[in-house]
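Researcher: Let's try something more involved. This one mixes different molecule types, so please make sure each is placed in the same coordinate frame as the others.
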Amino acid sequence: MRKTFINTLIKLARQDKDIILITPDMGFSVLEPFFNEFPNRSINVGIAEQNAVSIAAGLALMGKKPYVYTIIPFLVERAFEQIRIDVAYMNTNVKLVGIGAGFTYGAAGATHHAIEDISLMRSLPNMIVCAPGDNKEAEQIIEASISIEKPMYIRIGRHNRGIFNNNKIKIGKASILKEGEDIAIISTSNMLPNAYDYFINLKKAGRKPYLISMHTIKPLDKKLILKLINKDVEIHTLEEHSIIGGLGSATAEIIAESGKCVKFKRIGIPDEFCHIVGSQKFLREHYNLLFE
Amino acid sequence: MKERMLRKIRETIVNMVYRANVSHVASALSIADILYVLYFKVANISLENINSKNRDIVILSKAHASAALYSVLYHKGFLSKDYIDGYSVDNGKLPCHIDKDKSNFFEVSGGSLGHGPSLGAGFALAKKMDNNSGRVFVIVGDGECNEGSLWEAIMFVSTHKLNNYTLIVDYNKLQGFGTTDKIICQNNLAERIKSFGFKVYEIDGNNIEETEKTLKLKSKTPIAIIAHSVKGKGVSFMENKLEWHYKSPNEEQLNIALRELKEKY
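Model: All components are placed in one shared frame. Result:
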């Protein structure tokens, strides 16, 4: 998905001379094609994430279209206040591209786990939050991002299981990948392949599940969730993110205020730091996020 | 004329803070002269060119001193009186820390320290990329130099040789709990910034002629100006007094302050 990001950005940058790529010295072996083609629009600010975000905001205030790229925790957590004030509050046209969704950097340890980012980013006014589930979604979101003159956070993950969503997507509108009747699995970010497995398991168990990719967390497709609630469809949310504040919480808020009652389950990472050593796959298995 | 304007700017600051009953009057008085010189003598910013990418940029990173910026912009004719009257009152037009949404003349929003230097670097870099003219002036406090992000910005600006960038340190020697040098030692601040590749000047930040002369200097490298200033400058009982980082004048103090300003300026 990182390659998809950079290849899409290169395509856009050929058309739009205001696009600038900023990295706090991250992205080795990924960003070079952009650096090589647009050396004057590639800024490595050094290992200084706060600076990266504020410089991007300054550039945006002068009409530039900066994309800031680095590993999620260092972007959204290290530079959170810069994002809050210089990007969200000032409503600057800065695109924050976080890589390493969930346990992508599993064995690197909890410092590198990205499991609170959706919660943080969706709490900021003006911020659009997207979490593509496959390369096709990622490509379309990056393409769309250039015409949205607002702050945006794009959560990039990793999986090598191909394309799951072949539809044309629209930011803010969920993709229904499989129509169902009595239960819906709503997935975000790189959980999409796992959601597909979950969907198959539900089918095997005799249920008639919907499979939904919620590639945009904010604005959330409230309409769709209310439609499911009104049809009395059981809802399960799936995310490689803390169960606090992410897709599950956002969905729960809609259910709670709908005045109706449906069965609901949040599937995600419990409220704890992960001290277990292991790969993404191993950690997913530990936290019951694998359904193969 | 000059003296009258310096008096008017200060009178407005003191009146605003009194009416709103808010903090930071001394910080505002400390940078009143620098802002006056910038907007009245040095910076190419006008009603006509405000949307131009070639104009100068002034970023007040120590946004708690916003009363000074508001007052200078008002007396320059960039803000109308209802803005001043609406300072920190319910449904008013101006908050205690700058909200960019309120006027085109506010370059950035502020209130958390250490953001302005990096934002300014972004402005300066954008100008360089497009070969646009205009300088970027960033005003920080000496206490603000405790913020690590300021040093991130300094390293970036010098690496990229942004000679359209000028950092102004309002060195008034006081911060939250006492004197800046005792809280976090930086009495060799000029030397430190110089070591990063800036051209550094040390001036009396309340001396109009010296400030103007220095702000008009250009350099092949980024510039930093350590402006030694007096916190609370112009009102004797506020000068160099830590408590005026927080206090707001009562009516009696206001009247003494206004009388003193009339005598001095």
